[in-house]
Amino acid sequence: MTLSRGDAPSAASARRPAARDRPRGGHRRGRDRRAAVVPGPDGRARFTGRPPAVAVVGGGIAGIAAATLLAERGAHVTLYEREPSLGGRLSGWPTELADGTTATMSRGFHAFFRQYYNLRGLFRRVDPGLDTLTALPDYPLRHSSGLHDSFARVPRTPPLSALGFVALSPAFGLRDLVRMNPRAALSLLDVRVPEVYDRLDTISAHDYLARIRFPEAAHHLAFEVFSRSFFADPRELSAAELVLMFHIYFLGSSEGLLFDVPGEPFPTALWEPLRRYLEGHGARVRTGTPVRRVSPLPDGGLRVHTDDRAERHDALVLALDSGGLRTVVAASPHLGDARWRARIAALRTAPPFLVSRLWLDRPLAPGRPGFLGTSGYGPLDNVSVLDRWEGEAARWARRTRGAVVELHAYAVAPVADRAAVQRAVLTQLHRVYPETISARVVDERHEWRADCPLFPVGGYRDRPGVRTPHPAVTVAGDLVRTDLPVALMERAATSGFLAANALLERWGVRGQTLWTVPREGRSPLLRRLAALGAV
Q: Distance of CA 489 to CAs 1, 63, 115, 122, 170, Å?
């Protein structure tokens, strides 16, 4: 297939990628030459004649990806978003601080890994060189026992990545390695989608790691940190999701575990340029407009109902979070069939999480990393020092000689005293960075949310896919089952493009070519060994 502008998403590794990472021949996939191509449907380049009208409900990553591709192909796109701005769980909004400064608040730090080929391809529409992204030099982890791990010096290409991590990590001692269950651990070496769900979806991430007998320190220092990035307790999370994550970020990809971050707040760096791009392609962007229900029409079209009007469309992409999707489908009794509706109704949401952002009156000690994953510090899961990499925060810190720090607590018990949790994460910050004990908090913001999808044990088969019983309706988002090795933000972007591809295929219009990390273990020998350890 001939690729046009935007058809080959990228995994450029930093603000200025090395020569080997630069795109060649129109293909932009990063350093991993084994990255897999997922061809889009063939067809004519754009719509001819009267183009269809398509509604995209949800203005997060998935919805923006779907709307972008459809608008590029000439469809009449209307993007509905209930919040005042785009971005979904990566949105941002202005807030006035106690010192009179206007700052941008958000739902917290996100790491843009270099395996996020399709998400980066979306950003390249408005930033071809990905200049808005800044590379952080390390992904450090710290346990309250004093153990530290780092990925800066770990080789990126498997199996050297795994061997290097074990050799360099203080969490792996010779005695610990001898105690491991090598037969069970071999299953990590050959991850295939969707077969990994057949093998491991009925086991929790916690029980799977116990079966392998990973060293307790490594379990807490690395694997619990990773699993909680799904906003879930490892006892609730499917082992298949955890193992797939190891494959994507570590054992199956040579992109490594270092990542990039936007150099400015999300709206400025990402969503405002993409909104202009969409509107430049004729899309209507209706923020502050929640969709209440959808009515299928006898002619195969759909009527989308908002608070102020009902509009007819030829097709629909539902790109909502779990709760939003449940609500819209429940209010649309004629949408889909009974089995599909039951699967939507059964979707679960991960426990609440906290994002606390603090504006301090003094800087942190030199050498503090821009991001630190933590374990063993009560509810505190990570610490970000925003002024080390975000322009807006850095400008405030320079002007005030202060610092901007962000604290995350994932998988908080729904019945927890939220004020007590906020105090606890601040206490743990003082343990992690003692210089903050004497700092005065100039201002603070605390965001509590509970809208991330939960991937529970045994839940994979009942998760909705991109296609639905209605041929003109597709679903997108990080909750969607794609049967591809993608997760988190990359699953959202990939599913958005897949949802648009499914509609374009109906109309005989060319779709989006996608990339993923390799879809199976990298070595035939290791795959044969993995077969011996199937659990």
A: 26, 12, 11, 12, 30
Same domain, 276 and 315: yes
Largest CA distance in the chain: 70
Whole-angstrom Cα distance, residue 165 to residue 349?
33
Q: Answer whether residue 472 shows pLDDT above 90.
A: yes
**Number of structural domains in the chain:** 2
Query: Are residues 325 and 248 part of one domain?
Result: no
Local confidence band at 17 (pLDDT 50, 70, 90 cut-offs) = very low
Q: Residue 9 — very low, low, confident or very high, per pLDDT cuts 50/70/90? A: very low
pLDDT at 252: 86
- Residue 526 has a pLDDT of 64
SS3 label, residue 345: helix
Q: What confidence score (pLDDT) does residue 14 get?
A: 31
Neighbours of 466 (CB within 10 A): 24
Inside any domain, residue 417:
no
Q: Which of 451, 365, 353 is nearest to 405 (CA)?
A: 365
> What letter would DSSP give residue 90?
G
**What integer pLDDT is reported at residue 422 of this predicted model?**
98
In the 3-class helix/strand/coil scheme, how is 228-241 assigned residue by residue?
Answer: HHHCCCCCCEEHHH
Phi, psi of 58 (to 5 degrees): 120, 120
pTM of the model: 0.91
Residue 372 within a domain: no
Look up the domain containing 498 and give its range: 19-88+265-347+463-516
Q: Which two tokens stand for residue 106?
A: 């958000």
308 in the same domain as 227: no
Q: How far is CA 58 from CA 55, 82, 291, 321, 475, in A?
A: 10, 7, 9, 8, 10
Whether residue 324 sits in one domain with residue 250:
no
Q: Establish if 468 belongs to a structural domain.
A: yes
**pLDDT number for residue 235:** 87
Q: What is the CA angle 250-255-261, rounded to 5?
A: 100
Q: Is residue 390 part of a domain?
A: no
Number of helical (H) and strand (E) elements in the chain, helices listed first: 18, 22
pLDDT value at residue 230: 74
